[in-house]
Amino acid sequence: MEKKRIAGEEAAKRIQSGMRVGLGTGSTAYYTIVEVGKRVREGLDIVAIPTSRETERLARELGIPLTDFRSCPRLDLTIDGADAVTPDLQLIKGGGGALLREKLVASISDELIIVVDDSKLYDSLSGLAIPVEVVPFAWETTATRIEQLGGRWKLRERNGEAFITDNHNFILDTVFDEVADPADLARRLKLTTGVVDSGLFIDMAREVAVGTAAGVEWRKKPGV
Ligand SMILES: O=C[C@H](O)[C@H](O)[C@H](O)COP(=O)(O)O
């Protein structure tokens, strides 16, 4: 938790008054949001869009002013967590099921900063769980199509029932043994009828704050 806390808090320092900010979801982004709430009470003047109902609840509790996509079609910065980060900053997200709103918010952000602890760093995405959000209608057919792409899958459950996302969809937790080209896999998943989106975030993050036992290390996208 300490590593997540230092990463989350360090990234929050990038937020300045006047910014329009995307607020991520999960146990690491939580620390960013709490820090933002503290700074708002001290006078930080921002508006924010949350990436999940859970984050929206937390932001409201903390008194962070919220806005919406119509009033605020672009954001300056989004800070969010991730389940896996490669050396070239390709990501897996959606461990908490928030991937679709997270991707929508990241897609309108000039900058996406990711906050993780060092357990999330991987050399490649091969063999890791990739959440895929699918519409409930004919989800078994969608799952078969994912198998045809080479993935194994498991329907995510909570308390013995299918897990339902904030957008009223299901999550298939998929595993592809060999992910040589994450961008290609993301494209193939996206083109699969029944798939809403995948937790593969390709070329979206520019910087990652990694919490380690020695402090926070910043990783930048190679060439940026
Ligand atoms: O759906 C959830 C999000 O993508 C989270 O940002 C991701 O799962 C990382 O969460 P945590 O910081 O709790 O490990």
TrEMBL record:
One short Pfam family name for this protein? Rib_5-P_isom_A
* Reactions the enzyme catalyzes: aldehydo-D-ribose 5-phosphate = D-ribulose 5-phosphate
Keyword terms: Isomerase
Entry binding sites for substrate? 25-28, 80-83, 93-96, 120
Q: Please tell me whether the keyword Isomerase is annotated for this protein.
A: yes
* Listed SUPFAM superfamilies: D-ribose-5-phosphate isomerase (RpiA), lid domain, NagB/RpiA/CoA transferase-like
Enzyme class, spelled out: isomerase
For this protein, the record's InterPro entries field holds:
NagB/RpiA_transferase-like, Ribose-5P_isomerase, Ribose5P_isomerase_typA_subgr, Ribose5P_isomerase_type_A
> Any idea which GO molecular function terms this record carries?
ribose-5-phosphate isomerase activity
Catalytic residues at: 102
> Which protein, by its recorded name, is this?
Ribose-5-phosphate isomerase A
Q: Which species? A: Alicyclobacillus mali
Q: What is the gene name?
A: rpiA
